Amino acid sequence: MIPVTHMLVFSMILFGIGVTGVLIRRNALIMLMSLELMMNAANINLIVFARQLDSLAGQVFAIFVMCVAASEVAIGLAIIAALFKNKETVQIDYLNDLKG
Amino acid sequence: MEALVSFFSHYMLYILMGLTLLTAVGVVYSKNAVHSVVALLLTMILVAGIYLMLDAEFIAAVQLLVYAGGIIVLFVFMLLLVALHKDEAQRLFNTYTVVSLGLVAFLVIVLAVVFFGMPFGPEPATVTNIVKGGSTEAVAGTLYSTYILPFEIASILLLVVMVGAIVLTKERVKS
Amino acid sequence: MDFTMINIVIPTVKILIVFAVILLSVLVMTYAERKVIAFMQVRLGPMRVGPWGLLQPIADALKLFSKEDIIPTMADKLVYFLAPTLAIVPAFLTFLVVPFGDQTTFFGLLKHPTSMAISDFNIGLLYILAISSVGIYGILLGGWSSNSKYPLLGALRSAAQIVSYEVPLTLALVGPILLANTLSMKGIVEAQAKGMWFIVPQFFGFLVYLACAVAETNRAPYDLPEAEQELVAGFHTEYSGMKFAFFYLAEYANMIVVSAIATVVFLGGWLPVPGLAFLHIPAIIWFALKVGFFLFIFLWLRATYPRYRYDQLMQIGWKFFIPVALINIFVTALLVL
Amino acid sequence: MNNVLGFPILTLVTFLPTLGAVLIALFLKKEQSKAIKYSAFAVAFIDFLVSVPLWFYYSPGTWKMQFQEAHDWIPSLGVKYAVGIDGISLLLILLTTLLGFIAILSSFKAIKEREKEYYVLLLLLQTGMMGVFVAEDFFLFYVFWEVMLVPMYFLIGVWGGPRKLYAAIKFFLYTLAGSVLMLVAILALYFYNHQVTGVWTFNIQAYHQLAPYIAANAGKTFQYLITLAFFIGFAIKVPMFPFHTWLPDAHVEAPTAGSVILAGVLLKMGTYGFIRFLLPILPDATKVFLPYFVFLAIVGIIYGALVALVQKDMKKLVAYSSVSHLGLCMLGVFALNPNGINGAIIQMINHGVSTGALFLIVGIVYERKHTRMISEYGGLSKIMPIYAVIFMLMTLSSIGLPGLNGFIGEFTILAGAFQAKPIWAIIATSGMVLGAAYMLWLYQRVMFNKVSDENVELNKKGILSDLNGREIAYFMPLVIAAFWIGLYPKPFFKILEKPVNHLVEQVQPDFFKREQVKFDLNKVKPVVHEGGEEEHE
Amino acid sequence: MSDILTRIAADTPLILPEIILVIGATVVLFGAFFARRNTRLIAALTLVTLVAAAIALFGVPLGKTGFFGLYRSDGFSLLFKVIVLWVGILVVFISMDYLEARGYEAAEFFALLLYSIVGMFFMASANDLLTIFISLELMAISVYVMVGYFKDNELSNEASFKYFILGAFSSGFFIFGASLIYGAVGTTRIDLLADKIPFLSGGIGVFATIGVLFMLVALGFKTALFPFHQWAPDAYEGAPTPVTAFMSVAPKAAAFAIFLRVFVYAFGNVRYDWVPILSVIAIMTMIWGNFTAIRQENIKRMLAYSSIAHAGYMSLGIIAGTPMAIKSMILYLVAYSFMNIGAFAIVIILSRKDGYGEKINDFNGLAHTNPLLAAIMLVFMLSLAGIPPTIGFFGKFYLFGAAINSGLYLLVTVALATSVASLYYYFRVVKAMYLGDMPAKRTVSLTLSEKVTVFLTAFGTLVVGIYPTPLFEFIKTTFLR
User: Fold this and answer.
1) What single DSSP character describes residue B119?
2) Average pLDDT of the residues in D272-286
3) Calpha distance C143→C164 (Å, rounded)
4) pLDDT score of D517
5) Which helix (H) or strand (E) holds E65?
6) Is residue A55 part of a domain?
7) Which residues on chain B are in Cβ contact (under 8 Å) with E210?
8) Is residue A15 part of a domain?
9) Domain that holds residue D273
10) Would A50 be classed as within a structural domain?
11) What is the pLDDT of residues B106-118, one digit of tens each?
């Protein structure tokens, strides 16, 4: 098995990629996908620590995170669908009706 | 043979991690959203592989079921419905891409360096708890005893998601 | 992990065997399909190639492999190539945990008895479900990457159908899991060895499973996605040659998988039919017979029933099968408790 | 509890206007213009009458709070509804009630739209101001201090001049900014008090008693910060020199009655705050900053006067004169001796009377001709003789002519300032000279030059007419007050004597001992020792 | 097995209010079948549920930890729950006619409202990062849907999307931070974290601190603190106004509950790791929120920025972290619930039909056409600006007092200075109402439910502002229990 720290660095980078995706992409769907990457990074942490600490809480936590990830995707896609119905696009460039 | 053993136990995870990062980058930087989805699918499968290597078979299976069987299908559906003939490739990135990239890269590097230096001690010799009776049973034992409350909340959460998704997407019946 | 010689070689051998068996079964299935349906429709079926047309599948295979591989100009190449792979790999991977029989020493060849499954995870059933859920991307992406209307519609339909029916299918399997108290395929069979076959206490579950399995594999009467009259050939309209063969293989492999699961979960796997144990038929033959029985049902259904309408199909899935499966779980859980 | 009257007279005085306002708001319709005016006047006048007994029942023999009432308000915080007055507040309350009904009387004709709201707001304002002077609880004080801003905002904002919106919000923001600083200081003291005594209280007397302890034990920075917070809070209200910029805007844009109240009462709250809170609670820290404070006060005197000199607008001129006069008051306060403080308080009253009257005077011509430009007038004495007389009186009062009230205040302040540091008095006197200059010049330009034909015409038409009965009626009390203070100020000084002496003792505990020694040594001429004091130091 | 069941059964009374809410919500949801068009009936059902939950709430034993330590029932959580319930009741009142006028189904809306309240209840009581996370999501997802409830309306869609994407983003941070803390400390229980965090060895301590900072970012998003606030104005402006009213108070209250729970209780012993950062964030929030609010033309947007600013004030309570500060924060939230919902109620009343009334200019001359309504709005604006004698003043007084008591002079000075600046934009509304040009005569008639809301909030704002003792005592005694 490889050291925990290597896994952590890996998950940190994965998380970073996810954050980047949310920040820089203009396509709502890809933003949503990047969110999933973030969640997965956290999950990897949890699993790694569950093994390191020999405690199951991490794995249980990970299951809940997946549950939440699925929920968020479902709702997110529903919102995007509603948006698409009205605006015919999923590019966030066109989300500019609200500003002050 | 010994070489193979050490190869598997040592480098397999690195290979998986490397591939995961590659596909993750693919998710973010693909021009075509469908390619992103494919990359995401591969990422999820690879992550499931990582879980498998970390004695979390159950989580790995759930990962595949939830992501491959559920989430990404939704994504693909949405993509096929929504972004098919759109010229989405006109402007892929935000105007402040470089700034964001720099910022995130900086943070990630700093944190990664910090993490790298963490004194986490040696890996545990035995992981009795989490593989007791196969990880499924152990996870279930914890999930349905200690974490029964979040479990119930999660059930409400899923109900809300169902209601919400229907509310948001159903055609409005005008009176 | 213990990487010793024996632990590497034996699985490899097993994998090769299973792979060969599947390919063979697919060949047999294509032949059987034509023949069975032909007989049901009171005609002869293929008769030209070989005696009684027995070599027909081989001829078909040769034809497929030698055909030109057409790639539509507007297709998304990467995804177009990826899709058949995504369809076939999971289909084969699922066989990893299917126990074809009890432990065996292969007629004394091995010192220690080894399982007739390639591997026996303790989450076997979950593993199958997880892996098979990846298969859908082959269809979806294949339909999308062809960049053509009919394949896309077909893909969407079939994906929607598969996703919808995966829910009651999984739910139908929960009842037996509760009874067996394990997710391991082997464990489930062993649980049935102690008591009765789960088809008895889980009869409704079995029916739901059967119906959903047919829908899962996009077979008649749930073969909407490839309804020729509406959608030409569904998601693989644009595919030809080798890639088409992959889809074709995947479909039949899937049929075999669901049949195998049904066999393991509901019909006692390799166990002999109660009362016929004295025959001393090897376990693997029992297994093959049962799987064959299910495959026959597939063909039978195709020959007998007309195709559903799409909205009816979805309705029956969500509004009938899921509630029934849920009630089934509920009752089972109460009884187990 | 110390209340000779046995019934809650202060509460009555404070909340009578509110009661009236509520009744008017509820029972009178917008259209009943007369009823609204008269009932508002009646309420204010009754309020004045109710406040008069305070004067008679006040016992000047003690510095202690009188007419006290106390009820629990928020026990968990130690906040009480505690009111009570000493001589200082007594005078200010009387001034408030007096100006209150005068202001209402003066608006009968000037205000033509949204009358109901106007009078309701005036009455509410009255309560707010009174509350500030009677509050014996810091919290209560703060509440009233802030409450009063809202009606004033509306008075300026609705019935004001052309730039009313700007002026109103500026006034509000400035004052609020000051008051929140004050709040920080109050809270800091509150917690400090709890730390020291273990009691949660906002009682002002309790803080007064804590003062020596604070001076001795509290951290220097703590003391300085609180002092500065209080200083800025009150200085904005006064307004002292660099914080005065809201004042000309607010005064100029406010309706006449608003200006009267603003100048007459609101500004006094700042000085009152200095006297009541800053000096007794933080004497040592105040003394540290004293030179700067005095510097600002003196700059205010001169700057106000100089700016007033160049104004073309009568109201602006009077407004800037307020800056100058209040600077003088502050000088008196910061002299930190009985003379200075007595004078400052008397001068506060004087300023209320005379500047209030001057605003009314400006308001009268504005009401008639709708301009305040000095150049538009001239020779008014010929067509408006009574007006000219009253104007004259008030001008003289303002510049401090002996026999009129202004003289008493200014003289006492200068005496106090001289006693403290002669140079202060000398510089301040120059400001007074300037004061005489701009007031008299104003009077000359408005009253004596040639009457323009237009004005004569207007006079003939009855537009630019002389004062009518109502107007004379509301000038009369002010004129009487001016003469009273000017000719017989003794009762005022008597009322102020004990509280002010007590205050001085709090600020300079050895002041009277020191004075006593001097008196003992030189029984004949205390004046000589004013100069000698410097040698002692 | 049976042992576990008995323990769960023994703990069930603790979550009785939540159970009632869930059942009620489900009943309301089924209202979509039997009372599709009967908004009133559904609203009545919702109210009954809320009241029943309130009654049950006061019967819940306090000071207990249940469900294997994941749920904590104490005075602190009770107070937050009361606030949330109270806001819920008010929002039911104000949304009835609004929904009816626009022809949207009420059943799903109220069901989602109740579900989100369930989420907030669990948030208030959560004693474990996992419970916090999952209940936070329950609350958040319900609110995302509510924000996008007017699905035909592009603004609502857009608001919902923006709110969603940043909410989910912050969830990602939360969970990543939680995973780091789990790794460093080995537990996710709040009480155990509090005990263990200070004793971590140096390196691991740094690691845990990074986790804490991640969570700070996440909770900063949820409470709309400065660099993480961008979602708030858009979401507030685009959402249906009752939802805006709701989300400006209730989710914020719940988010602050977990903010306190996590940062003051769990990480209270390592407060010097995060206090400086949060202080900077708080200062920036107050400044940014208040000064950006000044140039808003849309009143919902203006109130959104004001709510950012108020969140900045409230974060003082977290920074101070004393029991007194926490009580003050709760009081502030109560105050905020009165005045902000009241203000939104008036915006709703004005814009019930045609969206007229969402611009500040639309308030022009309201004092002439509806003097009483204008007067009440004036009270709310005064209260928001913190002018006595209103409840908003007491809220600020208490909060800043507690902060001063903890020695946060700089922060309080900034808070006060910015709250003076806030007066400017609150008074733009007042200015429009009283000093603005008269528009065409347009009187608004109030329905019963609107009257009730306006009365309740105005009553609370004024009367509590004049005699706050009962409220103070209630908070004080409950907090100690």
Assistant:
1) -
2) 88
3) 18
4) 58
5) strand E64-66
6) yes
7) 111, 114
8) yes
9) 9-536
10) yes
11) 888 888 888 888 7
Query: Chain E contacts of A46, Cβ < 8 Å?
Result: 179, 182
Q: What is the spatial distance between Cα B25 and Cα C330, in angstroms, rounded to a whole number?
A: 44
DSSP letter string over E164-195? HHHHHHHHHHHHHHHHHHHHHHS--BHHHHHH
Element (H, E) at E71: strand E71-73
CB C305 within 8 A of CB C322: no
- Is position A98 within any domain? no
Domain count, chain D: 1
- Could you read off the pLDDT of E235-272 as tens digits, one per residue? 898 888 899 999 989 999 999 999 998 888 888 888 88
Total of domains in chain C = 1
Buried b (16+ CB within 10 A) or exposed e, D30-49: eeeeeebbebbbebbbbbbe
Q: Which pLDDT band, with edges at 50, 70 and 90, does C13 fall under?
A: confident
Q: How far apart are the C-alpha atoms of E262 and E178, rounded to whole Å?
A: 11
Among the CATH numbers 3.10.100.10, 3.40.50.150, 1.20.120.1200, 1.20.140.160, which is that of B2-89+131-169?
1.20.120.1200
Quickly count helices (H) and strands (E) in chain D: 25, 2
Contacts of D157 in chain E (CB under 8 A): 431, 434-435
pLDDT band of residue B134 (cuts 50, 70, 90) is low
Cα–Cα distance for residue pair D409/D339, rounded to 1 Å: 10
For every residue of D55-123, DSSP letters joined together read HHH--TT--S-EEEEEEEEEGGGTEEEEEEE-HHHHHHHHHHHHHHHHHHHHHHHH--SSHHHHHHHHH
Strand, helix or coil at E210? helix
C-alpha D491/C-alpha D485 separation (Å) is: 9
Q: How many domains does chain A have?
A: 1
Domain-wise residue ranges, chain E? 280-481
Any domain includes D2: no
ipTM over 0.85: yes
- Where are chain B's structural domains? 2-89+131-169
Residue position matching structure tokens 């299976």 = B61
Domain CATH for A8: 1.10.287.3510
- Best E419, E423, E433 residue to mutate vs chain D (most D CBs within 10 Å): E423
Residues 12-41 (A) with a CB less than 8 A from some CB of B: 12-21, 23-27, 29-30, 32-34, 36-37, 40
Tokens of C319: 């509004």
Which 87-126 residues of chain B touch chain C by CB within 8 A?
none
3-state SS string for chain C: CCCCHHHHHHHHHHHHHHHHHHHHHHHHHHHHHHHHHHHHCCCCCCCCCCHHHCCHHHHHHHHHHHCCCCCCCCCCHHHHHHHHHHHHHHHHHHHHHCCCCCCECCCCCCCCCECCCCCCCCCHHHHHHHHHHHCHHHHHHHHHHCCCHHHHHHHHHHHHHHHHHHHHHHHHHHHHHHHHCCCCHHHHHHHHHHCCCCCCCCHHHHHHHHHHHHHHCCCCCCCHHHCHHHHCCHHHCCCCHHHHHHHHHHHHHHHHHHHHHHHHHHCCCCCCCCCCHHHCCCHHHHHHHHHHHHHHHHHHHHHHCCCCCHHHHHHHHHHHHHHHHHHHHHHHHHHHC
Q: Residue B83 has which token pair?
A: 């972004």
| Nearest residue, CB atoms, E434 vs list D74, D77, D158 | D158
Would you say how long chain D is, in residues? Answer: 537
Number of CB atoms found within 10 A of residue E59's CB: 9
Chain A residues in contact with E173 by the CB 8 A cut-off are 38
Full domain range(s) for residue A31: 4-91
Please say whether the beta carbons of C211 and C219 come within 8 A: no
User: Minimal Cα–Cα distance from D157 to chain E, Å?
Assistant: 7
State the residue range of the domain holding C212.
67-336
The kind and range of the H/E element at D232 are helix D220-237
Q: pTM for the whole thing? A: 0.89
